[in-house]
């Protein structure tokens, strides 16, 4: 009996100790340790910093219905003096969001309400969104900032640009992206040579290193079937037909041929084809590489295409150069002789599969070629791949990591998928875009920002609606024929390779514009993308400039400048002394090379434009590096007066 | 000192609670037992072999003890838990993150619940193998079986309350099994339990009320009868 009592006593004491564990754990909790450490640290600093009250702290983000307790340990987030302190006490880098208003996990992810390190960074079971690694942080910007270009988030913006350029929406459902123009496959059988097509299908980047066409990793058999199938597509869109080659191109030989090629070479240079087309990798980035084009396309097609690009390839953004028959023949002859691929691998002889048409059609459907390319009446169904609208909220249990053996996180999954699309399952159809690490990372950042988190509408910044500006009439026809939108923007429509023309007539003088169409020199000689010479007729130039003067104008920009000797002298002084404009601009060969030379600026620009530009350059060209010197009206007027003397 | 004590014994408050004198005579000793609820429910006499520990293993008492632990921890958990869809899961997480000893309370409740199901089941086995269901104890056997079911129901209704994936699918599967009831009752019973056709906020509130009020009250009433019968039928 006594023994039993002893056992009872001992076990009671043990139970008492066991019961004490939980309160002790509370008392010696991790976060209390950090708070005491913080208070100890700031006591020894020369600055006076408010010590932390011991206790759990939290930010309640009302708009997003979130509670973040990160500031329980991150105590110095808003103490400027702690910029160099060790973590978790360091100051938060400057951002444009108030911490109290947005909390922490809104951007960083992780488990906000947790109060221990391990739980809060969220790399625990049952928490799908661990804290973002630094390189993926910008994904969170994308949750609210839905515009294409987010200035403070370069990686996100690059990702969105790449998604658009690679035309991901061809196969995946994804909001906010424009479909890209991709050459139509109708008529490809009359356009290209089969050996080129075979090589192209095997590896597009071998021919054109920056092509957007991905590598589908076809087998040799598939390549042959597809090539045979595509070579049967000989009729062009809108029932267009090829004109036969002109006689001077077919029969010519000897010295006359050389003379013709020389003419072609000159015209090719004058037309500045390399502004858009790279030649063996050197030159513009807008269009395809011409370095080996003579081995790619048939001469007849080339002749017809340069003569009228939109005839064979509607919607292509290539201007119709106003070459005459002779010049045209010369250009084609020159390209034929010069732009040849001498090392092109001859595909091995093969006998076509008797069922190549059916099999080819099946392959086209399987790999969704019509997602990007126009192809007969085939529908472009953009939902072959999984929808990506909310891919950032994908749960881990929804993802099949296959045999890849990578760490199980969403960001790494997407990155690996982009880099090697077939790694998770050999049945995947996604082609290989051969992306660099940085590109793949940027795309992952853009994708991770597509979540289905409930975000109040007032916090979301949407992409501005696409401009519907489409000029009509004579001017409209010319703009279409010359593919102006391929480089220039007008009223928010078009690409920005060249300049924005919206206020062109308020900026430049009529005579200068007219002259510029004839001799399109470059204002900044270092630029690769120069205005091509389109060889327009005087009538066409008149039509263009007339329209510009009526439409591309901002009434408020017109201004009268008082030109007298005192203002001119004052302006000259400001130019040379106060603002030292010569540091970037040249006059009479003296000055810097950053800005355009100002020698003949008075015959180029309107005084009103100069005045307003000087006052606030970024208002007219947000990416301009011209400094805004906060000039007074008098100063701007004096500078304008001085510049207007430079004829 | 002694005087003071005697004064206390004579006060009305004391006498209203302890209605007999000090157990100094046979009469007052007997009264001490009759007038005290906890002593009175014990049988006046028991068989000698029933007192041997390895005969009962104390399983009934253990079950009751665990029930007390569950009521105590459960009442404390109720202070921090709101049975609503947006808050339930986060309240459960906050027990872990911010409530002092919250995780300890939750673990106590959880493990005691598991243990109670096991112990009650073992209790039933013990009663079966010792033949303690035979007359005159057949009525109490039936009450006991109902109590086992009540215990399992308590455990099951508590399963939904953390409001995570595990509980959601657990209850979805369970209520889908109810749908298989014959005579077209399945749909109706399942609808009644869930307050809808799927596990949603209504189901959460219903399971909360069942778990914290209806089933515990029913269990306590059945326990009272069970204990009373045990004593009347000559158990410990």
Describe the overall structure:
The complex is a heterodimer of chains A (647) and B (236). With 647 residues, chain A is mostly helical. Among the domains of chain A are: 25-131, no CATH class; 154-179 and 384-459, Immunoglobulin-like (Sandwich), CATH 2.60.40.420; 473-553, Cytochrome Bc1 Complex, Chain D, domain 2 (Orthogonal Bundle), CATH 1.10.760.10; 557-643, Cytochrome c-like domain (Cytochrome Bc1 Complex, Chain D, domain 2), CATH 1.10.760.10. Chain A has helices at residues 2-27, 30-43, 99-102, 105-108, 117-121, 141-144, 154-165, 188-191, 194-202, 204-207, 220-231, 247-251, 254-270, 293-296, 299-307, 309-312, 325-338, 356-366, 410-419, 437-448, 473-482, 504-507, 510-518, 538-551, 565-578, 601-604, 607-615, 617-620, 633-643; strands at 59-61, 66-68, 278-279, 282-283, 586-587, 590-591. In chain A, the strands form 3 sheets. A two-stranded antiparallel sheet of chain A has the order 1-2. A two-stranded antiparallel sheet of chain A has the order 3-4. In chain A, a hairpin with a 2-residue loop joins strand 3 (278-279) and strand 4. In chain A, helix 7 (154-165) crosses helix 20 (437-448) and helix 9 (194-202) crosses helix 11 (220-231). The longest helix of chain A has 26 residues, at 2-27. The radius of gyration of chain A is 33 Å and the shape is flat. By secondary structure, chain B is mainly alpha-helical. Chain B has one domain (60-232): Cytochrome Bc1 Complex, Chain C. Chain B is 73% helix and 0% strand. Chain B has helices spanning 2-10, 12-17, 26-34, 37-40, 53-56, 59-78, 85-97, 102-129, 138-160, 165-178, 185-194, 201-232. The A-B interface holds A 21-23, 26, 56, 65, 67, 69, 113-116, 119, 126 and B 86, 90, 93-94, 97-98, 100-101, 103-104, 164.
């Amino acid at each position: 009996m006594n023994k039993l009592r002893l056992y009872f006593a001992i076990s009671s004491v043990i139970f008492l100790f066991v019961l004490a564990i939980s309160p002790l754990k509370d008392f010696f909790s991790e976060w209390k340790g950090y708070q005491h450490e913080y208070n100890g640290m700031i006591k020894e600093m020369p600055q006076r910093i408010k010590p932390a009250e011991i206790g759990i702290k939290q930010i309640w983000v009302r708009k997003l219905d979130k509670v973040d307790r990160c500031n329980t340990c991150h105590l110095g987030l808003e103490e400027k003096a702690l910029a160099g302190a060790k973590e978790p006490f360091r100051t938060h880098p400057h951002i444009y969001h108030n911490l109290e208003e947005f909390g922490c996990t809104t951007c960083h992810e992780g488990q906000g309400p947790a109060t221990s390190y391990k739980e809060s960074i969220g790399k625990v079971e049952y928490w799908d969104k661990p804290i973002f690694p630094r390189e993926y942080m910008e994904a969170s910007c994308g949750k609210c900032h839905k515009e294409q270009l987010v200035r403070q988030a370069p990686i996100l913006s690059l990702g969105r640009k790449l998604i658009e350029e690679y035309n991901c929406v061809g196969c995946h459902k994804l909001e906010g992206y424009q479909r890209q123009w991709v050459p139509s496959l109708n008529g490809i059988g009359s356009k290209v040579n089969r050996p080129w097509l075979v090589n192209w299908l095997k590896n597009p980047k071998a021919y054109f290193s920056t092509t957007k066409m991905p590598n589908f990793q076809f087998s040799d058999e598939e390549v042959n079937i597809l090539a045979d199938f595509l070579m049967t597509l000989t009729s062009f869109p809108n029932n267009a037909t090829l004109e036969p080659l002109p006689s001077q191109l077919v029969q010519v030989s000897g010295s006359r041929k050389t003379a013709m090629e020389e003419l072609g070479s000159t015209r090719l240079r004058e037309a500045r084809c390399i502004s858009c087309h790279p030649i063996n990798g050197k030159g513009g980035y807008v269009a395809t590489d011409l370095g080996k084009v003579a081995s790619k396309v048939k001469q007849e097609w080339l002749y017809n295409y340069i003569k009228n690009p939109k005839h064979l390839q509607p919607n292509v953004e290539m201007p119709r150069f106003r070459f005459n028959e002779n010049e045209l023949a010369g250009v084609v002859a020159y390209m034929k002789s010069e732009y040849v691929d001498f090392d092109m691998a001859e595909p091995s002889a093969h006998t076509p599969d008797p069922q190549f048409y059916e099999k080819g059609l099946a392959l086209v459907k399987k790999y969704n070629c019509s997602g990007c390319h126009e192809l007969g009446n085939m529908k472009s169904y953009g939902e072959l791949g999984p929808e990506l609208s909310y891919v950032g909220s994908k749960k881990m249990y929804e993802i099949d990591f296959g045999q890849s053996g990578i760490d199980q996180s969403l960001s790494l999954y997407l990155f690996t998928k982009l880099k090697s699309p077939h790694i998770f399952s050999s049945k995947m159809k996604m082609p290989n875009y051969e992306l660099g690490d940085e590109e793949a990372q940027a795309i992952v950042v853009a994708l991770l920002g597509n979540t289905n988190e409930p975000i109040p509408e007032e916090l979301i910044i949407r992409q501005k609606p696409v401009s519907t500006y489409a000029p009509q009439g004579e001017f409209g026809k010319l703009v279409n024929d010359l593919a102006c939108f391929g480089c220039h923007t007008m009223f928010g429509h078009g690409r920005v390779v060249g300049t924005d023309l919206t206020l062109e007539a308020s900026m430049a003088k009529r005579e200068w514009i007219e002259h510029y169409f004839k001799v399109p020199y470059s204002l900044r000689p270092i630029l690769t993308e120069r205005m091509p010479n389109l060889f327009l007729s005087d009538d066409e130039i008149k039509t263009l400039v007339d329209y510009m003067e009526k439409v591309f104008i901002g009434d408020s920009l017109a201004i009268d400048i008082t030109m007298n000797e005192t203002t001119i002298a004052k302006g000259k002084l400001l130019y040379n002394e106060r603002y030292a404009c010569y540091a970037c601009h040249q006059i009479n060969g003296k000055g810097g090379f950053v800005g355009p030379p100002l020698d003949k600026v008075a015959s180029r620009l309107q005084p009103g434009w100069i005045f307003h530009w000087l006052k606030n350059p970024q208002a007219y060209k947000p990416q301009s590096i011209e400094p805004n010197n906060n000039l007074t009206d008098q100063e701007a007027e004096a500078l304008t007066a001085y510049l207007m003397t430079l004829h | 000192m002694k005087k003071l004590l005697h004064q206390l014994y004579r006060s009305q408050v004391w006498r209203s609670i302890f209605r007999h004198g000090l157990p100094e005579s046979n009469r007052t000793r007997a009264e001490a037992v009759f007038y005290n609820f906890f002593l009175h429910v014990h049988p006046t006499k028991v068989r000698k072999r029933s007192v041997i520990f390895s005969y009962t293993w104390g399983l009934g008492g253990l079950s009751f003890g665990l029930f007390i632990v569950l009521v105590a921890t459960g009442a404390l958990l109720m202070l921090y838990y709101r049975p609503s869809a947006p808050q339930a899961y986060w309240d459960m997480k906050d027990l872990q993150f911010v409530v002092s000893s919250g995780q300890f309370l939750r673990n106590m409740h959880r493990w005691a619940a598991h243990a109670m199901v096991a112990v009650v089941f073992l209790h039933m086995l013990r009663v079966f193998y010792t033949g303690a269901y035979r007359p005159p104890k057949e009525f109490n056997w039936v009450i006991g079986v109902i109590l086992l079911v009540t215990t399992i129901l308590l455990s099951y209704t508590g399963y939904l309350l953390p409001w995570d994936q595990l509980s959601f699918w657990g209850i979805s599967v369970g209520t889908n099994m109810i749908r298989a009831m014959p005579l077209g009752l399945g749909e109706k019973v399942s609808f009644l339990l869930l307050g809808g056709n799927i596990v949603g906020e209504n189901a959460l509130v219903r399971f909360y009320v069942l778990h914290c009020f209806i089933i515990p009250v029913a269990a306590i009433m059945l326990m009272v009868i069970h204990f009373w019968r045990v004593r009347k039928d000559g158990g410990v």
